[in-house]
Amino acid sequence: MKRLQLPVLLGLVLAAGTAWADEDISKVNGRIVAEAGRQYGDLDTVNGGITVKDGVRTGKAETVNGGISVGANAQTGGLSTVNGSISVGARSIVSGGIETVNGSVLVGNGSQVKRGVETVNGSIGLIGTQLGGGIETVNGDITVGVGSHVTGGIQVKKPSFSFSLKPSRKPRIVIGPNAVVEGALDFEREVSLYVHRSARIGAVSGATPQTFDSEVAPGD
Questions:
Q1: pLDDT > 80? residue 16
Q2: Beta bridge partners of residue 172, listed in sequence order
Q3: Which DSSP symbol is given to 48?
Q4: Residues 178, 200, 139, 104: is their CA dihedral positive or negative?
C-alpha cells in the first residue's frame, strides 16, 4: 500500500497545479491584469478595465464599466463590455465574439475572431483580421481594413428611438483593399458605403456602394 501512496499524491498535486494555472478571476470593483507567464480562466469585473498582456491565454473576459485591452499573440475567449472600448493586438485569437454597447472595437493585423463583432454606439475597425461571424452596429462606423475577411456579412440596424431633433449622423462603412465580406450587407438606415475596387462583397440592400481606388476612402 505504501508504494501506491506516492503516485497518488503526485497525481493530486498535478491536478491541483492545473486548476491553479487556469484560475478564474472575478471582482466587483477593480481592474484585472492578466500577466505574462501565467494561464488564466475567465476574467470578470463590474467596475474596472481588463488588460491581457502579450502572449497570455485566458478564458472569456467581461466587464460592465471599463475597457478591455488584449496584447499581441494572446488567446482569449469572448470579450464583452457595456461602457468601454475593446482592442485586440496583432496575431491574437479570440475564440468567441466581441461585444460592446458604448465603445469602439479595434482588432489588429493577423488576428482571428471566431465569431462576430457587435456594437451599438462605437466604431469597428478590422486590420488584416479573419472574422468568423458577422458585423452588427446601430450608430458606429465600420472599417473592414486591408486584407480582412468577414464571413457573416454586415448589418447596420435602425435606431429604436432618438430624443434628438437633429438628423443623426450617417455611419461610414469602408471595405478596404483586398478585403472580403461574405454574406449580405444589410442597411436599415442611411449610411455612406465605400468599397475598394479590389474588395469582394455580398449582396447590398439599403445603400449604394461608392467605388474607390486609393489606399484611403474619400471623405463624406
A1: no
A2: 192
A3: S
A4: negative
**CA 27 – CA 46 distance, rounded (Å):** 7
Q: Report d(CA 43, CA 59) in Å as an integer.
A: 7
The answer to whether residue 3 scores a pLDDT higher than 50 is no
Q: Has this prediction a pTM greater than 0.85? A: yes
Which residue type does 170 have?
A: K
Query: Which grid coordinates are listed for 101?
Result: 454597447
Q: Distance between CA atoms of 90 and 70, rounded to whole angstroms?
A: 9
Q: Mean pLDDT over residues 166-186, rounded?
A: 91
**DSSP letter, residue 216:** S
Q: How far is Cα 126 from Cα 179, in angstroms, rounded to an integer? A: 10
Beta strand 68-70 with 135-137 is unpaired
Cβ neighbors of 9 (< 8 A, separation 6 or more) are none
- Can you tell me the mean pLDDT for 176-203? 97
Distance CA 57, CA 22 (A): 9
Q: Residue 7 pLDDT more than 60?
A: no
Percent above pLDDT 90 for the chain: 80
Q: Is 8 within 8 Å of 15 (Cβ atoms)?
A: no
| CA separation, residue 124 to residues 5, 31, 99, 104, 136 (Å) | 56, 24, 10, 6, 9
E strand spans, 138-205 = 142-144, 149-150, 154-156, 172-175, 180-181, 185-187, 192-196, 200-201, 204-205
Q: What is the pLDDT of residue 169?
A: 82
